[in-house]
# Entry
Amino acid sequence: MNAYAGTVLRVDLARGKITKESLNLELARGYLGGRGFAASILYQELEKGTDPLGPGNKLIVATGPLSGLLIPGAGKTTFAAKSPATGGYADSSVGGHLCAEMKYAGYDAFIFEGISPQPVYLFVDDEEVELREASRYWGQGSISVEKVLKEELGEEFQIATIGPAAERGVVYSCVSHDFGRQAGRAGVGTVMGAKRLKAIAVRGTKSIPVADLDEYRRISRQMYDACRASEAWESWTRLGTSGVNMWSDEVGSFPTRNFQSGAFEKAEGLAGELMRERIVVTDKACFGCSSPCGKWSHSKKHGVRVEGPEYETAALLGANVALSDIEDVAYANYLCDEYGLDTISAGNAIAFAMECFEKGIITTEETDGLELNFGQAKVVFALLEKIAKREGIGDILAQGVKHAARVWGKGSSDFAVQVKGLEMSGYESRNAPAMLLSYMTADVGAHHNRSWAITYDLEVGRDKVTEDKAAKVIELQHIRPLFDCLGCCRLQWVELGLDLGYYAAVLKAVTGVDRSWDDLLKISERVWNLTRAFWVREVEGFGREWDYPPARTWKEPVISGPTKGKFVSREDVEKLLDMYYAQRGWDKNGIPTREKLEELGLSDLVKI
Amino acid sequence: MYLRADSSKCSGCRACLLACSLYHFAENNPKKARLAITPHFPNPGTYEVRTCTQCGECAEVCPVDCIPRDEKGAYYIDAEECIACMACVDACPEGVIFVHPDYEAPFQCDLCEECVSYCGPGALYIE
Amino acid sequence: MKRVKVVPVGMLKNYLSETVRANPAQTVHQLLDGLGIPADLVAVVMVNGRQEPKSYLLQEGDQVKLVPLVGGGQTLVEERMLK
Ligand code: SF4
Ligand code: SF4
Ligand code: SF4
# Structure
């Protein structure tokens, strides 16, 4: 099958049995790959009510039809499972070289089932596949284990690992790859840990077949030329995502002190250029990417090397906990990477605890004697360790801010900054309704990558709560996750302005199947509705209430900065949801209607 | 004519490897490339690019003298004559004569320049 | 006096259609105000290949590149591109 490897590996961890299955043609046609595969497999194969940490959950690792091809950024792998952080659908994409290597080895996806009796890792070298004993790596850091495995197996092996946080069940543990890329969100690493799967190591020497080689090479050539010719190439590769740190602060969207404000008075310390000059040593790319946004850094102050900090980490482990020295943020980033913690959720958890401490909701009694003041690097480092080890207060924070707010009470849930149980990523949105709606409706919880609509708010007017904003969010929620189905990066389009038309054209060339851009968007909409259906099925009483942002949104205006005094009222929150549901063809409670499911060809599969 | 590399500019994307294999073998397969990218992580955190320097050691050790130079000045292995003894592979000081299970004879860079045009950061260049 | 070269990128061309020359001895903020470009839409300011804050005081001969928020704002979905 052109552009696909043609085989899926099913790994029964409980019995130590690995089966090779042919890739289901219908799956490829209807869902493309990556996130689409994951959503479909999880919906069909998981029993209703599966315990995310139990043997019934499945961890899906999926490539897309563009993965591993000569297409800018064709190195995005999807990790997916039922989320232990939210109880709903989770997928998280990681850049690097893993998906490319999987396809060269001959596999489109891995499906991990059950729980292994002892720590293991999956070894894949072309046809040779086996589970290997991994007890000696258990307890070791993600980066350390990757290094050791590369030394043992060879540099050509692409490795994904989990750290001690995942082993201990911290709900926002990530999967790490390529020494600093993570499938970070919603606890896909936690599921891997619960399965006692310490790592995945893959090497492949085969070729990926394509339908029309000449046409593929012609379009590929154009895509590379267009990326390199983009006027934004220079700034993007120099700074990566850290280029927007200062902008985010200027427009009041830089989450500060647990999202109390959107502007950080010491933000210059986190500026992209300063980071570049002070700590960045190497530009680091995903497979096939000619505009490397990865920044490999060396903090002399702390004596560590780390990838990043990229924007989200500077926001959540910088401004949001009020750290202003980029080297301190780099060290916090390093700790998270080695422990295997998602920097976004970890930064939120620490900031939440700090605000609770500031407000007297918790005292040194609950904090194991630590003074949880904002801006204290040592406290941040100490808390990260406690979280990873689930010691004392760390055990509460290890279960996310929604849980911590339940434990500590006293109104703290108003400022536990999460949606659906997933902590919010780095955009303060009380003066950006489209961005807020993006967070409210993202299908893994409060994450920005499904729709980064703050740019739209800025373009058309930040105060407006209008139909076009809901329309824009929906449009983005179909375009952006589509890249995760294709198995390639979206940033060439987002940041370099690479024309979307190339993707439909090159997909046609490599698969031999003619699909218009609209056809592709329809597939993305199908996936979106399927993940929604997953939530409806798995979460008792799921509906509108689950799309609400934290109450701070309407109860408390922004305390400082350019958006000072701004908030989104409760009525506007409802209005946003009404508009969004109606445009999506969902009912007032946010449940996909029969007609919608029929239109998308989901009515046989989904019974809600 | 030489293919040169400035490793400090390399970001490890491997587009060059894929471009090379597509050009010569019409296949998507970086394991069939004629240059090498080796990451050194986490410490020091750099990529090493190795290309053929046209030093000629391969030609010198070849027992059947099947590694002549073409008009560009590139040494090439004449697969017809090659006896697959791998003496050149072992002799290459850069480690850039490659083998793949699909072929008996090893292969090396022929200065086609394809990789250069795919390298975004400009780590590869012709001199 | 050597003037400053100002290059707009991407959607900022809606505000400034081509490369222009401007006076030094003003901040980037003042420059943007003068050109009628909303500062919020300028994500990154590159001066001579380095990122500078909008408070940067322009020097003679500076080359300024104004990089917009491309970020998903532009959805160029048109059938023509599929041809
Ligand atoms: S832009 Fe960044 S994330 Fe995307 S492929 Fe390139 S290096 Fe990877
Ligand atoms: S110049 Fe041609 S043969 Fe040599 S490494 Fe580059 S692509 Fe391969
Ligand atoms: S294309 Fe350039 S940046 Fe990418 S791996 Fe090759 S030499 Fe390095």
Remarks:
- Chain A touches chain B through 44 residues (CB under 8 Å).
- Residues 517-538 of chain A form the longest helix (22 residues).
- Chain A has three domains: 7-203, 240-423, 433-497+515-599.
